[in-house]
Amino acid sequence: MDVNVNGQRRSLGDVDPQTPLLWVLRDELGLVGAKFGCGISQCGACTVLVDGQAVKSCSYPVSAAGDAEVTTIEGLAGENGELSALQQAWVDLDVAQCGYCQAGQIMAAEALLRTNPSPGDDDIDQAMESNLCRCGTYIRIREAVKTAAAKTAAE
Amino acid sequence: MSALNYDDIGDVVPTVTGERTAAADASLDVRIAKIDRRQFLKLTGLVGGGLMLSFAGPKAMANGGVLQPNGYIRIDAGGILLYAKNPEIGQGVKTSLPMIVAEELDAAWDDVQVVQSPIDQAAYGAQFAGGSMSIPMNWTTLRRAGATARAMLVSAAAKRWGVEPTTLTTRDSHVVHAPSGRKLAYTELASDAAAMPVPAAGALKLKDRDQFRLLGERITGVDNDALVRGEPLFGIDQSVPGMKYAVYQKCPAIGGKVKSANVDEIKAMPGVTDAFVLEGNGNAMELLPGVAIVADSTWAALQAKRALVVDWDETDASKDSWTEAKAQAQKLAQQSGPVAADQGDVDAAFETAANRVGGFYTYHFVSHAQLEPQNCTASFKDGSLELWAPTQTPGQGIGSAAKVVGISPAKVTLHQARCGGGFGRRLYNDFTCEAAAIAKRAGVPVKLQWTREDDMAYDLYRAGGFHQMEGSVDDEGRITGWRDHFITFSNDGRRPVSGGNMARGVFPAGLLENLRIEQTPLSWKNRCAAWRAPGSNVFGFVVQSFLHELAVAAGRDHLEMLLDVFGEPRQLGPRGMHTGRAAGVVRLAAEKAGWGRELPDGRGMGLAFYFSHAGHIAEVAEVSVDADKKVRVHNVTVAADVGPIINLSGAENQMQGSVVDGLSTMGLSVTFEDGRVQQSNFDSYPMLRLPQTPGVDVHFVASDYPPTGLGEPALPPLAPAVCNAIFAASGHRIRTLPITEEGFSLS
Prior knowledge:
The complex is a heterodimer of chains A (155) and B (747). The longest helix of chain A is centred in the last third of the chain and has 17 residues, at 138-154. Chain A has helices at residues 21-28, 85-92, 102-115, 121-128, 138-154; strands at residues 2-5, 8-11, 47-50, 53-56, 69-71. The model of chain A has no long low-confidence stretch (mean pLDDT 97). Chain A contains 5 helices and 5 strands; from the N terminus they run E-E-H-E-E-E-H-H-H-H. By secondary structure, chain B is α/β, with parallel strands linked by helices. Chain B folds into 3 domains: 6-228, Aldehyde oxidase/xanthine dehydrogenase, molybdopterin binding domain (Aldehyde Oxidoreductase, domain 4); 235-313 and 374-449, 2-Layer Sandwich (Aldehyde Oxidoreductase, domain 4), CATH 3.30.365.10; 333-366 and 461-746, Aldehyde Oxidoreductase, domain 4. Helices cover 29% and strands 23% of the residues of chain B.
């Protein structure tokens, strides 16, 4: 089996097709940015994009990805390592406390901004509601999404 | 008044670290997944230049061109390296502790690289994250560490230029000779400085507060770049060559033992390489009995765990029942209990009171629910153990793991990994012990992975509790009597659990003439332990809500009554609160929130103050309550006096996070029946989400007291501030947490 991740075709050998994408990314491909939090699509720490849509990779069989393009947090920075607007906003606003949920938060925000480049508060509420932050950094998450959107709009 | 609450974590502060030598590369390899450590060091040597490779370990004294006067600083021609000694669990100490060093060193923050230090008691003393102690315990040591290196750099420059050291100044990682306009970078001076005598602590001149350039600024976390790139920082991200993936099933009721299990069937499953029963070591904080499964992948291990069938011997297992405990407490509340603290004559005060108020307060158990489920990577080889562990108490982790696998602590190396949240759960190293035992028995390195269900079922819970409150006021509205019969829990039948003891005196003890605390512990088998701001997080709710009840009964404004209770500005005992600082934050929060202004119907403001972990914090919440008892918290104003702020960004983040955590916990509950936890995952433990998050305004009082920690003290005032606001908005007094028990919900 193969899967397209961050612009590369990756071979998975004889991996069980029912394996959640999360564990394929983490255990087989060494991409550990997506995190395990609940295993039942409740916390969003495992959020990645499949063809631009945010999915909870803990509950998404790898076989479902098919020929679709999977994007993980490791695939957001530019070719020379420059941070994306969202990543940069997360650093500039010092959003993280423990940081464990933040890759999932950024990926959920990435999916939002791809379809809605200038989201209002309600849009952000709706798009980010499925991502838990146990440390309670929601205020800064909201600000960072707005900051990144404004910066992208200005460019 | 509670002191620093050190006692609440005293039983877990590291005592055993063994005769450890500096593990030179301890902090680097936690960032590496799927790459052999030695190979990594070789690789960085090839691509990274001198700095990383010249990592010599903090015990090495200055020599060979390297200035390393203590365990916190290493300067050579390649750069300035600062070591962060304590575990990072989300409170930002990996950034704020080195900031203190950099301030006195006069290093430009941009020139500094920060790495996690190895575990080394000789070099660092106790290394742990707990009790909001990182800043207060290390403030002076870190300042001296920075000032020491600075003095040696100045001496080196003075010698090189043939001038008096007093004619030199330092700034932005340079020594400057203003009269001649010469300046030299620390990196250029490091080699010379290494040969200078190390100045005595008494000879060091530390900065005055108005000389601080870095402290008090907003500094982004040192790991933020790696975090947003998804680099392997956390315990769960670790990987070592030849590693297998392990899971461990324990009895759903604590104390149960394995009678039999379908181990042979499990071993035959695809991807499973081993399965076996572990007996446990008799210490519930270390190794409980269970069945281990070892597999080629996490998924294979999880699948096998689902197919595992165990026949448990529950003879000695927990039969804990929340329903029964509650019924028992309600009965006990009608009676007197053993007196834990007594001052004045409460009974006489009640007899002569103008007005008496009473109420039965209840709060449920809650879980830590740190987002990274427990995990630990362990390798046992040739009688030595190596651990990669997201723990708050690495020193204790070494000691207990050594005990479990039967070796000396000196044979254990523990690498600190970033922790995906702690909240007190990772003060206890049961998961580390399990990983060590499984690795030894399996004969291969393993990464032990708990599921979320494991985490909920085998947490060390914040205990619930019950308080029968009675109070009285005189005809001028002053509080004359206060009685609290506290029905708490005990794991050993004698001592109350962590955070379940009021005997040491809790506000308003020390401020009222007549006060009595009675304390009755109920026996409880499920393990209870420290949870963010132990004790304070629940006592704050009861005490500050009940004070408001008395203010209402007396017909007084809550703010005015609180200030009256504080009285004259004074320090209450060496580690107690200062009533002047308390009044200061209460006034500030009230002023910033617009206390007393007219609000529409259905909207109200509530105030609460709490002193814990040496921090004085007041919060004002503004809420709406609708006809369906849906509570919307619009805004929370926080005023804090914790001395000088180290990192303004981190400090503000902690205050915002504590408010969100406090609010979230108002809706949460863990219950037990037949010894089993009734909640299993986030669907039955619904933490607060982004849309319910209020605005949080944070104000710090610029006081000159020594700085204290911010991981905990802003949490306790939140629940009472919100509950007092709900009363103001709706007339309903909340006496139970979670508020859902009284029909309310957060929206």
